[in-house]
Amino acid sequence: MKHFIITSFLCLSAGFAQAGSSNLKKLETQNEARGWQAVGRLDIANSGFCSGTLIAPDLVLTAAHCVYDRTTGAAYKPKDFVFRAGLREGKAAAERRIVSVAAHDGYVPMEPLSAKNVSHDVALLQLSSPIPFSEMDPFALHIDVVKNGPVSVVSYGRGRADAQSRQRECQMMDRQENVLVFDCDVTYGSSGAPVFSHLNGRGRVVSVISGMAQINGKKVALGMYLPPLIADLKSQLRSTSYTPSIKSAPKVRRLGVGKTRNNTGAKFIKLSGS
Question: For a pLDDT cut of 70, what percent of the chain falls above it?
């Protein structure tokens, strides 16, 4: 099995290409979007957006780096977020404010990207009120063994912020400890997007998009192994005194979505194969 080592940040321009070979399809009609409404756009103050997934009537799963201001490392306040489930052409299937945020305490904002940070780059957000099952079904988590093979991704992103896009099939290429490597098509704003397995019927969330990378010149997407992290996050949410931490680390520039949305979005790193 080929192993990959995170070596350095890759400096990028706004014109950097997307990861993966693309068979990405925008879900433009109600019929195409049916069954995927629990994937939504997470709008963040005036700083941009990430993708997120409803995994319980009142819980949204996204990337941890989405809940921090990239320029200061400070955690956004819950009131800074709005989750717009199934947003399509300006209309959401359901919309909620956020009342509590838990970013995994193994993730260090502003720290140069590493396998450890990618493997903890996940957060849970609690909605102001549950979204009833009669409106949409949350997605279950994949709790079986994670293996290389076909997966799919539903996301928002730069140039496609007004509706979900789905890549029906891409591949999980490798796993190094708790970092998962995919050839899926992601871009700025896709951070926090769910990666689905399709072993038994409806898709189950196997990972969350943390960022993009290069492996020997090939663009790939990175995610984390979720099962051991979710219990930690739920415990953090139950703690009324919990707030996302601010930890000191060297300042790192990362690119976001659009001209004024420069604090969020997928991160980019460079990997080498051996």
Answer: 79
